[in-house]
Give the backbone structure.
Amino acid sequence: MGGGNEAYGTKAFKRSKSHFTDRITADGRDGWPVEAGRYRLVVSRACPWASRAVISRRLLGLEGALSMGIADPIQDDRSWRFTLDPDGRDPVLGIHFLSEAYDRRESDYPGGVSVPAIVDVPSGKLVTNDYQQLTLDLATEWTALHRPGAPDLYPQALRDEIDTVMADVYEDVNNGVYRAGFATDQEEYEAACAGVFRRLELLVPRLERQRYLVGDTITEADIRLFTTLVRFDAVYHGHFKCNRWKLTENPVLWAYARDLYQTPGFGDTVDFDHIKRHYYQVHTGINPTRIVPLGPDLSGWLAAHHREELGGRPFGDGTPPGPVPADERVAATGRP
């Protein structure tokens, strides 16, 4: 198994739209009602899109209602695989590859096999891989199963502003780093890279005056920016050539990212080992040696950030999530 993807860096990058866009809702209108224990969330800790779902699930206290399978950060030509589990098989779904759940839903599907994905455990069929909608539904449709004290990650009164901020961050930052990293010519790369830093610099004045992106509490907008920022110096700065400056060289964004990292539900879901090994070993089109760099030094993630001086209430009227379930703790190799 090569574990790489030589196409990256050799053809223009275009992110696939999610093909499976069924929604799991309180009223079950798509045929998939919210139900404790019925579904399994499949993720990779390496993937920023999947990491949104991991953070949301933890903040909302859905661990007992929505089980989670973690794929190996190193893919092979059949994509995400369960080689971290005994016998290389997901213990709940009984499959070796996430593609098996896709195949049970539909054959010859476009867009490839992606995470996050939610699988219906009784049938073994994929329900959704709609990474944009999935976390919004966890916040708004799964409320009956939220923990006591769960935060409102998508408050009704702020949704228009949250949507606007998220759209800009998605286009220029979340997706922009990929367009820069997988660019196939200089002009394409420069436009994408410039867009990344232009958008980050536009966020600085907002985050200088307020602790969180929208309102005075953590929202979906913060989750989506965080998952890119936490990977920035480890992979996007070097591997994707987004190197005008490091996150650690931007005082406001670095303090903001540290604040979130140190908030229960954020940093305790991050595995830097999985992140680095995935990007540097899978994208062989842009890193043919598959060598994983030793740096950066991660200890700064635990340094004081002083963002509490801006006020804000991380969980609003709610409370922090409890301890990470023992079987979901990130190994020491992935933490500062």
Remarks:
- Strands lie at 39-43, 67-70, 117-120, 125-128.
- The longest strand covers residues 39-43.
- The mean pLDDT is 94.
